[in-house]
Specification:
About 55% of the residues lie in helices and about 0% in strands. By secondary structure, it is mostly helical. The protein has one domain (about 35-365): ADP-ribosylation/Crystallin J1 (ADP-ribosylglycohydrolase fold), CATH 1.10.4080. It is globular and about 50 Å long.
Length: about 375
């Protein structure tokens, strides 16, 4: 296992990473239960890809416009993207998450410099503005990986963060949280962004160890308790008219929005229309947390609500899909979605999500595990 705790401390000591030191960075996560099955990781990774592919054809539409044109979306629609295939095709959300996974397999853990170069090395479907800027700084200007990330609240780091848990399955270590912070820093070096990615990785790890869904208030409260110390008292301003009076940290905005929405059982579409559901984490984070609070017990319903009731629906559904997949496992995802998923992450078609999940399983689980192997998800 690669231990990045010292590297993270060096980055914080030199002021190159926007992150406050907090207790979670020094404590290993709890071990996974003795009967842990890798199918929970398969669910997390493939749930991410499924959410992305379900949302991709209608990405960027407001929920009302989407419903008028398509009704309730419950299955894959044609993507219209010749690079990725007609049905069940993924976008940059899955692509960058699985490029991350691929590099983790190659290196046996996170090597931030290698990840930075990997993200610069291929054609990205529907590339986001922050990642485009990062590539310009790293590849074109030649900046070191520590300086190439953008001070951005875009959701492009959060959407790809789930794979960093995989190298730590056998030996939980505080480096899990260092990996989450450094992975985010590579492209999105902002206090709110890095804190969010560390907090979400902690949520994913806890979900992998759960046998049943947590309480509705667990999602926001767990996120807030972790993100608060890491982000600190930043000042961000949301863009939606109803919440434009807010100035402060992302974690506090999530607290104000999510706890009130849950208390009043506000429907997902109404809550997301209130605070927004675009690519800024000020919109993505409360949307994800509220969907999970309302529907985390039902993976299919959670992903469907993310696809139908949000604007940046492929990314929000990918993040929700990773969470419910980690909680409920591969068996909790509808078979029709697994069968219909295209999952191609390279334009030449030489690799897909199923093959990479199996490679990760061989590298980080079967090679060292004393447990019986779970369902083979290679297809």
């Amino acid at each position: 296992m690669i231990d990045n705790t010292r590297l993270l401390q060096e980055c914080m000591g030199h002021g190159v990473i926007r992150l406050h030191d907090a207790g979670i960075l020094h404590c290993p996560p709890s071990p996974l239960p003795p009967d842990f099955d890798f199918q929970k990781v398969e669910g997390m990774l493939l749930g991410l890809a499924i959410g992305d592919a379900l949302g991709a054809p209608t990405e960027g539409m407001l929920p009302g416009e989407r419903h008028t044109r398509y009704g309730e979306i419950r299955d894959f629609l044609p993507s219209g993207n010749p690079d990725t295939g007609a049905i069940g095709a993924v976008t940059d959300d899955t692509q960058l998450a699985f490029w991350t996974l691929e590099q983790l397999v190659i290196d046996g853990g996170l090597v931030p410099e290698h990840l930075a170069d990997r993200l610069c090395s291929g054609h990205i479907y529907g590339i986001g503005n922050t990642v485009r800027q990062f590539i310009g700084r790293r590849k074109d200007q030649g900046l070191p990986w520590q300086l190439a990330g953008i001070d951005s609240l875009g959701n492009g780091a959060l959407m790809r963060i789930a794979p960093v848990v995989v190298p730590h399955l056998q030996l939980p270590h505080a480096s899990l949280y260092a990996d989450a912070a450094l992975d985010a820093m590579v492209t999105h070096n902002a206090y709110g962004n890095i804190a969010t990615c560390v907090a979400f990785v902690d949520i994913l790890w806890q979900l992998l160890g759960m046998r049943r869904a947590p309480s509705s208030d667990w999602w926001a409260e767990t996120f807030i308790s972790t993100a608060r110390g890491l982000e600190g008292d930043t000042t961000y301003a949301p863009g939606m008219p109803d919440v434009q009076g807010y100035r402060g940290p992302l974690w506090r905005f999530a607290e104000l929005m999510c706890l009130d929405a849950l208390l009043n059982r506000v429907p997902v579409v109404d809550a997301c229309n209130h605070w927004g559901s675009g690519a800024s984490l000020l919109e993505t984070v409360p949307s994800v947390l509220h969907i999970l609070a309302m529907y985390g017990h039902d993976p299919e319903a959670a992903i469907i609500r993310a696809v139908n009731d949000t604007k940046d629906n492929d990314t929000i559904a990918a993040i929700v899909g990773a969470a419910v997949g980690a909680l409920h496992g591969l068996a909790g995802l509808p078979e029709r979605w697994l069968e219909g998923l295209n999952g191609r992450i390279h334009a030449d078609g030489n690799s897909d999500v199923f093959r990479l999940v199996f490679r990760a399983k061989q590298t980080f689980w079967l090679r060292h595990s004393r447990m019986a192997p779970s369902t083979d998800s290679s297809r």
